[in-house]
């Protein structure tokens, strides 16, 4: 009986987080009310304080859930060399197409304030993604040589930066920036940048 | 007399735009009221509808002003070859440090909605900046060779993307991302990517 109650509670929580994710992405965090979330989820409004405290608690739960989903879908390890780089670019493109990525931009203005409860989660997500790109560049491979003076961490930073910026331009003008072409172009430049002299 | 009135009107407009820019960047667009803007500018609230219609009109004027300031501070032409690339990176870094750039992220969540009056201005700013980077890559220079299959437009897209993404990571974690180091790293990778084979 206790188990069943726990299951129902987990399921309510899941439905509330799902409804809130959708609403925050569509209407924005500030425009969404707790009543909207209850309506869409079909869960009684009274259970929201019990699960999340307040709307800010709900936002935190949404962000935790979204980031977990995002980082899980992104493999940590990739083969060394050009094949691994191709995989990374494919994953970065697929990542940009996931609907929840939209939520990241919608909440950016809130997240950017140092006092925001989600500020550190964004910084952590960036750090995690940089680490994944860095790990690829740190693997020894005969067909990969970083530019003189550049570290694997620099590769991670530059690659994540380009991916973030491609996504942002595409969100503003999907008719002016083709996502597949953009990640293809990024791959060309990164491949050329890390090709040993004489191999181009 | 007519001239003096026109001057006073221009000056009021300027003061209102300046006050609104500051407030939108600090408090966010939605949290700022027309009364806040009147208070800070010292201009009577009643003149705001006359100048801008409503708060949305004021937002548009702020964006026009900010984008004009930004693109004017960014030179259109840069020398061909590595010196020009160094200049571009210095400008991109200086650009990120301008306080008004902050406003761009604060308003991003509003701007990203296709119905937003400032949506197209963002897409235009991106296009202008891509054009400046593209123009450098399109100049013939013996020390510059784009990767096979890449166009000057691809260079513009990848470079702007990286600059946008560096800025965003820095805004989230200024203690974790050093702006000067990041643009230096970007320069190393771009230089390596466009160096003719054998010259590295």
TrEMBL record, chains A, B:
Species per Swiss-Prot/TrEMBL record: Actinomadura darangshiensis
A Pfam family this protein belongs to? TetR_N
Tell me the protein's name.
TetR/AcrR family transcriptional regulator
Q: Which GO terms describe its molecular function?
A: DNA-binding transcription factor activity; transcription cis-regulatory region binding
**InterPro entries named among the record's database cross-references:** Homeodomain-like_sf, HTH-type_TetR-like_transc_reg, HTH_TetR, Tet_transcr_reg_TetR-rel_C_sf
Q: Which domain of life is it from?
A: Bacteria
Q: Which residues form the HTH tetR-type domain?
A: 10-70
Q: Which PANTHER family match?
A: HTH-TYPE TRANSCRIPTIONAL REGULATOR ACRR, HTH-TYPE TRANSCRIPTIONAL REGULATOR RUTR
DNA-binding as a keyword of this entry, yes or no, is: yes
């Amino acid at each position: 009986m206790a188990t069943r109650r726990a299951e129902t509670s987990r399921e309510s929580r899941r439905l509330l987080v799902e409804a809130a994710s959708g609403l925050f992405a569509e209407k924005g965090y500030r425009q969404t009310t707790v009543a909207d979330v209850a309506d869409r989820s079909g869960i009684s409004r009274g259970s929201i304080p019990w699960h999340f405290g307040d709307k800010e608690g709900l936002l935190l739960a949404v962000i935790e859930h979204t980031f977990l989903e995002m980082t899980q879908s992104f493999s940590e390890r990739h083969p060394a060399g050009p094949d691994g780089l191709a995989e990374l670019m494919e994953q970065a493109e697929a990542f940009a197409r996931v609907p929840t990525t939209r939520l990241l931009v919608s909440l950016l203005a809130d997240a950017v304030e140092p006092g925001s409860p989600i500020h550190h989660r964004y910084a952590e997500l960036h750090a995690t993604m940089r680490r994944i790109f860095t790990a690829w560049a740190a693997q020894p491979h005969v067909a990969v040589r970083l530019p003189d003076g550049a570290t694997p961490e620099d590769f991670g930073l530059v690659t994540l930066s380009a991916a973030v910026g491609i996504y942002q331009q595409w969100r503003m003008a999907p008719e002016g920036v083709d996502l597949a072409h953009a990640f293809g172009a990024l791959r060309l430049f990164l491949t050329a940048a890390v090709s040993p002299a004489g191999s181009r």
